[in-house]
Amino acid sequence: MRGLGPFLRDAWRLARPYYVSEQKWSAWGLLLVVVALNLLIVGMGVVFSFWNRALFNSLQEKDWEAFVQLLFLYRHTEFGFMPGFCEFAALFVVVAVYRTYLTQWLEIRWRAWMTTRFLDEWLADRAYYRISLTTDRAAIGTDNPDQRIAEDLRDFVANTLSLGLDLLSNVVSLFSYLGILWSLSGALTVFGISVPGYMVWVALIYSVIGTYLTHLVGRKLVPLRFRQQRVEADFRYALVRLRENMEGVALYNGEAEEKTGLGHRFTQVIGNWWAIMRRTKLLNSLINGYNQVANVFPLVVAAPRYFSGALQLGGLMQTADAFGQVQGSMSWFLNSYAVLAQWRAIVERLTTFHRAIVLARAAAGEGLTTTAGPADAIALHDVTIELPNGAKLLQDADLTFARGTSVVVSGSSGSGKSTLFRAIAGIWPFGSGQVQRPAERVLFLPQRAYIPLGSLRHVVCYPNPATAHGKDEIKQALVEAGLPELADHLDDDENWAQRLSGGEQQRLALARALLAKPDWLFLDEATASLDPEAEAHLYRTLKERLPGTTLVSIAHRPSVAAFHERHLVFEREPDHVGRLVPFNVGAAPAVG
What we know:
It contains 21 helices and 14 strands. The chain is of the alpha/beta class and 592 residues long.
């Protein structure tokens, strides 16, 4: 409860942007209509309480005509004009159906807007990449971003609407029924003191006690719900990883180890779920017992006035109904506790995730910086490259890649060659210095080619749209990259990352380069899965088909050096800080 204020502010910060966005008019319009329908249902409930009172009075008085009219006709009663039950039920069905329909309409529009916003911010300034480099993502609330965007946003919108509308309805219901209960309660003399509207005070005391006990029992559900979402996402992610690496697991005969790992993660799911079950059992015992007593409690309290003749049967039933409505409205917190606990966990997850995105984007200009430079070179000025833990891979380096001069970079594994490419690409944030790049087309091909979902045409053209190149052009690029068997499958939509081997994926990435025709092409062991003959053939193809492209390659094979004019070796000093040593091609081996 001490954190209630900050929690509500966080929920407001998440919810407010949609209602001041470019969709604000439709958002407010739908919200107001939904609120009006909810209030109309509350008003119909108040009218029905008087209809119910009139019905029971007709039963007590054995008034057949009044009974039939109350069922079928709009008639005048002692409480004013009353609709017949058939009319009332028909109107209620229409209102209830459209309340749900319009609420769902608002929910999906709100979710779509929030999802688009989170995706935009997560992908902007490569925040997603900077966050992925954090060593303890769970501690800062950035673990499983897929779950936070797909599930947490969905549940936030749904729970915010349901809880907000339910709270509003209960507040209006409370004040609507308070007057009825006050007028029907009469006064009760306690120790010589007359207490007017005594059933209102009884309902208040009953609700306060129930709410306090519920909070004592249920407050531990919030961290349990928070952890459950995380362990569920971790287990699902492990299953996805297994699906994406089935061949590797099969070749290693790693089924037993995978089963152990999955079993360990699922044990965490089960263990936390048991904790939720035990806490929920206590909470439900209290809530159900509380509600069961509430069913008969108002009748017991109001019975003396009925037997004394101060109330008719209809008045007794309306008193019980009004007491139930007042007590239920006052007990909203109690009855909604489990949903509130889940909602709070969702708000905390989304808030920490959004805060991490904002911090990552704010830090985008810090550390290594990338600026526009002259068209004839890519230059590094006083560049220091560090690991996330602060260890230096390269210190105070000055380096120039001249346009038209291809370069091969070699060195021992882990020396920092790939990280150097990341720094040149402008995605590595750790370090200092400046990288100057021309405003020309630069393409980076990592060792593990990225294969997106979609048709083969989309995969080959990535990151450009599938319509960026003609069918014949794409087929020619596939043939030149050594994949002629795929040329007739451009419109096939399959899981190409699973279907293609590592070598085929690298060939496909080189087909992208042939289509894109970049001015600069950086290859980070992008042919390492190919045999030396195929590797040499592809380098010759790149040289012939892309004569205006400057190649910069990371490679361990000496044969690759023959396709470059300059050779850089990434060497490690005794203090473990790296340095780049230039050689003429052939003067030093290209093997690290």
